[in-house]
Amino acid sequence: MYLKKKPLVVGLAAAAAVMTTAPVAVAQSESFAIEEIVVTARKRTENLQEVPIAISAIDETTISRAGIERASDYIGLIPNVTLVDAANVGDTQVSIRGVVSTRDAESTFAYVVDGVLSTNPNSFNEELFDVQQIEVLKGPQGALYGRNAVAGAILVTTKEPTNEVEAKIGGGIGNNDAYKVNAMISGPIIEDTLLGRFAISTRETDGFYKNIFTGSDNSVDYLEDTSARGRLIWNVNEDLSFDFRAGYSEVKGGAINFNAAFAIPQFEAAFGSPEFYKDVNDLDFKFIFNTPGENEQETLDLALKADWNLGFADLVASIAYNDLEEYLLSDGTSATFYGYEFTPACESDRETLNSFTRPDLFGPPGQPFLVFPPGEGLGVYGPYTATSCDGYQYQERNQEDLSLDARLVSPGDQAIRWIGGLYFAEIEREVVVAYGADQGQGFARRPYVSPTGPNPTDLLFWDQFDTTVYAAYGQIEFDLSETVEVAFAARYDREEREVDNQVPNVNNSGLNSNLLDPVTGLPGPINPAFASNPGGIPKRDDTYSQFQPKLTLNWAAGDNINLYASYGIGFRSGGFNSVGTEDLLNFWFNAGYGGPGEAVDAKLKVTDDYDKEVSEAFEIGMKSEFMDRRLRLNAAVFRTDVEDNQFFEFFAGPFGLLRSVTTIDEMYIQGFEADFTFAATEGLTLYGGIGLMDSEIEKNDNRPLSEGNDVPQAPDTTGNLGLEWVFPVKGDINLVSRLDWQYVGEMWFHTLQGEETPTIWNVFFGPGFNQNFSKASRDAYDTLDLRIGLEAEHWAVTAWGRNITDEDYLQEVIPAPEFGGSFNHPSALRSYGVDFSYRF
Fold first, then answer.
1. What is the mean pLDDT of residues 278-303?
2. E strands along 273-391, which residues?
3. Is the bond preceding 365 in cis, omega lying within 30 degrees of 0?
4. What are phi and psi of 513, to 5 degrees?
């Protein structure tokens, strides 16, 4: 900012940018102090303490010493920011101040790599190797970053090519047969003119959990990741440079590693088993699926950015291309409602895979699940079993996109500073969700498998989404006095969306008895939308637009104290659920449609499309340094009001599984957060932070009983505390120790939090068998990480442990109200190992 009281270091390489909640590099002199932090949050280099945005910044040293390799490794160090990583690799939900990214909808934060906005939905969870800096911005950032940045923005800066040849190799081993290897080389291709850098990383782990049916250690939460990244910088002359970045990755991992739990008090009373109404935090997880849970991804991303000094301003223009191909295959849930009960494969499996011959798989009979031998009863199945009775599910998430961004940025040393830009993107996304029969003949990994194939498809959602985005944005900052700055930013987004159904107009295989025509008993349409559209499902389209202003006031109240206040509007585009969502849910769960829903009468209001989300945010903050810049203390209070918050709903029933996006009409989140860094001595740094939130669902037409409840994934308390100790041993060798404690309070995952609503079981047993999710919140938990190592100028060796107390806690709870239970995913347990690196 122009009002700074001390010189601003403008080169990232010259500034040790550090995280406000983490250890910092300390100046080694008689008067040591926390070094200045340089960030690019407002698309120009500025001192963190003078930028009127709540920011956590993580530099190269902290990335290395904290062992940050994926997004989950740094999210826990930031107050009021949480992450869920469950169903498959890259299926992350990030909550920033209680506004959470939503499965099957657009993200709630902008993810920017080297100044280029990424539209690839999985790029956020890629390996973080050869990275220079990470910045996490809180609050609406749409004015400058757009593309649904209602909660904030995360900026990643990779390391630039160097003008001198350098290279690095590294690796490590750990428990669970984990290993990793990485390498980097950088240097001039044409000295001072064309510089190049190439880095590669590969890792594997068997994961923490075992499939007790197959006996396999590497079939549940395993991971194989190989990623490569190249970067070229061409300095054409003093005023013009081009920055080209390319990345490629192949990932294989486990998928859909959930266990189910009932939440029906009436079942507990009827069957005399507390397992039918159990606290999800007390589950004993068993993975016994016979269908291979697998997720494979292949990603290519290319970006070219030009920076041209025009004298009066810099022209920064970029073009980016991304291509993602991904599929998931896993067990289904159809056995729960006996859909494939009488198929030859199911009958055969029940001979040997039942509760009486394999109690190691199913537990004591009726606690709560019960699998009978064939001909002896229907039993009570759980999903994802060792039998073929539950069918399978297959999903694809493919995306190809092209985006362009161009902006003019004025010099930063003027009294009036401004930015103006234009943005365009073309996005093609293919989404497949298929369910079908497991006949014990293997699996064809494609959207539609005919009745004569090895795994016939019985229910199929398959849509091609096309989105065109146009935006104009800008910001102007000017000084009211020597100590007061006013900034006004604005953006206008317009998104044109179209969806084209790809499902073939055919009937299902007839193997799932629940999907037969209730009148004729013959196979029904493979997608329920064909019942009302026998000639074919028409295309759908809509346009979403929003003006997003942001006003900020910044006051340099003292040499090392800045106070600021801001007000802004955030926007997330609306969109479409898969065609057939509304028809399917109406038939099974709503009265008035002539199906089983007459007995359920859930009164759901889920449609095949959903509205745009608009948020209004207020923030007042302080950034300060004391004790000759040995103590840094930053804090903020905020409130966010959201209309039509996009919320992921999961439905399970006789048809199988269904994913959809609904909206919470009105809600608010308000809170406080603070973080500190204290350089106690030249070698000892203490740091920590706390986040407090209060939230409420004010209106929810889809689930009116939820009004007054907490906002999902908005825990009331988060916090972290840690220390880093650097002790000289000999020469340039230092002993480096780092201890990190992280805490996340109780978290709800659904809008219903104990209010009873009807379930599909009322169809079979009569009224009164309702769900109650009062035992379905995730308990508060805390973890402890420790790293101890030796560092020298050219090498480092570190012993590390994550979750060293072996805290057992849930990663995610996905309640399915009309099913009467939840699908639950455990978190990683204790891990440990040794890392090394050598720099040439």
1. 95
2. 294-309, 314-331
3. no
4. -65, -25
The pairing of beta strand 561-572 with beta strand 540-558: antiparallel
Q: In DSSP terms, which residues pair with 576 in a beta bridge?
A: 609
Q: What is the pTM of this model?
A: 0.92
Does any domain span residue 3?
Answer: no
Burial class (CB in 10 A: 0-12, 13-18, 19+), 282: exposed
Using an 8 Å Cβ cutoff, are 334 and 144 in contact? no
Distance (Å, rounded) from C-alpha 352 to C-alpha 372? 10
Q: What is the pLDDT of residue 170?
A: 97
Asked if the model's pLDDT at residue 346 lies above 50, the reply is yes
Scan for tokens 């919140």, then name that residue: 777
**Residues ≥6 apart with Cβ < 8 Å to 139:** 53, 54, 97, 151, 152, 566, 568, 617, 619, 638, 640
pLDDT score recorded for residue 705: 97
Lowest-confidence segment of 28-32, 86-90, 356-360, 464-468 by average pLDDT: 28-32
**pLDDT surpassing 70 at residue 2:** no
Q: How far is CA 75 from the centre of its chain?
A: 11
Which residues on adjacent β-strands are paired with residue 427?
401, 467
Inter-CA distances, 367 with 234, 530, 775, 810, Å: 66, 40, 17, 21
Within-domain flag for 509: no
Give the pLDDT mean for 649-655: 91
C-alpha to C-alpha distance for 586 and 595, rounded to whole angstroms: 8
3-state secondary structure of 828: coil
Give the residues across from 93 on adjacent strands.
Answer: 84
Higher-confidence residue of 262 and 5: namely 262
What gap in Å lies between CA 361 and CA 791, rounded to an integer? 48
In a domain, residue 11? The reply is: no
Is 789 in contact with 799 (CB distance < 8 Å)? Answer: yes
User: What is the pLDDT averaged over residues 627-650?
Assistant: 96
Six token digits for residue 810: 């849930």
Q: How far apart are alpha carbons 160 and 114 in whole angstroms?
A: 10
**Is residue 29 a part of any domain in this protein?**
no
Question: How far, in Å, are 103, 509, 540, 573 from residue 536 at the CA level?
Answer: 28, 19, 13, 27
Supply the DSSP string of 568-595, one letter for each residue.
EEEEE--EEPPTTHHHHHHHHHSTTSSS
Cα(697)–Cα(704) distance, rounded to whole angstroms?
A: 10
Report the chain's C-alpha Rg in angstroms.
Answer: 27
- The Cα 262–Cα 276 span in angstroms is 5
Comparing 12-16, 365-369, 716-720, the range with the smallest average pLDDT is 12-16
- Closest listed residue to residue 419, CA positions, set 145, 785, 683: 145
Assign 391 a pLDDT band (cuts: 50, 70, 90).
Answer: very high
Q: What is the mean pLDDT of residues 336-365?
A: 93
The first and second tokens of residue 89, run together, are: 């690799």
- Contact criterion met (CB below 8 Å) for 705 and 757: yes
Any idea what the CATH number is for the domain that residue 552 is in? 2.40.170.20
pLDDT (tens digit per residue) in 304-344: 999 999 999 999 999 999 999 999 999 998 888 999 999 99
3-state percent helix, strand, coil for the chain, nearest multiple of 5: 10, 50, 40
Are the CB atoms for 231 and 197 separated by under 8 Å?
yes
CB 296 within 8 A of CB 326: yes
617 lies in which domain range?
38-249+266-341+378-502+520-568+576-839
Lowest mean pLDDT among 334-338, 407-411, 610-614, 720-724: 334-338
434 strand-pairing partners? 394, 460
* Helix residue ranges per DSSP H, 272-422: 344-352, 359-362
**Number of domains the chain contains:** 1
Residue 177 amino acid letter: D
Q: Please give the mean pLDDT across all residues of the chain.
A: 92
pLDDT of residue 91: 84
- How far is 337 from 340, CA to CA, in rounded Å? 9
Residues near 251 by Cβ (< 8 Å), separated by ≥ 6? 89, 90, 223, 224, 225, 226, 295, 296, 297, 298, 299
